[in-house]
Specification:
Distance between the termini: 28 Å
CATH architecture: 3-Layer(aba) Sandwich
Shape: globular
Largest sheet: 6 strands, mixed
Structural class: alpha+beta
Number of strands: 6
CATH class: Alpha Beta
Helix content: 25-40%
Number of helices: 5
Order of helices and strands: HHEEEHEHEEH
């Protein structure tokens, strides 16, 4: 994600490390594995009225194997169970991620020119969850 952060805000190692560490302390984080190996992580945060997908990272060589779909399906299931809308932020320049989230049912609700806020449309989650249950 360094390229997207750099293009949007510039890069400062100390600031990024501090922000990442703070973010991980704010909510649950789970390592994503595939065939016994670590290949990413998913981080979410339950707030009073919403569920935030803070970060979903799959190492590039493991992408396009439905690993991210399986990981987000669990967060979508939690959103449904808690009856809270699921939100996330994505860099506008990260078109691969933006387009993927759109395909699985997220819609844009805010755009500041650098980051888009997306919310999962209520009717979108059951299909993806069934495929990866």
């Amino acid at each position: 994600m360094k390229g997207f952060v750099t293009s949007a805000y510039g890069w400062d190692d100390n600031l990024q490390q501090a922000g990442f560490a703070k973010s991980l302390r704010q909510g649950p984080c789970q390592i994503v594995t595939w065939k016994g190996g670590r290949c990413g992580f998913v981080h979410w945060d339950v707030e009073p009225d919403v569920l935030w997908l803070r970060m979903l990272c799959i190492v590039p060589e493991m992408q396009n194997k439905s690993i991210g779909s399986a990981a987000i399906a669990k967060v979508m299931s939690l959103s449904s169970f808690l009856q809270k809308p699921l939100y996330l932020n994505v860099f506008i320049r990260n078109r691969v991620a933006y387009d993927w989230y759109s395909r699985i049912g997220f819609v844009e609700v805010e755009n500041d020119g650098k980051i888009c806020t997306l919310v999962l449309a209520p009717s979108s989650s059951p299909d993806l969850m069934e495929r990866h249950a």
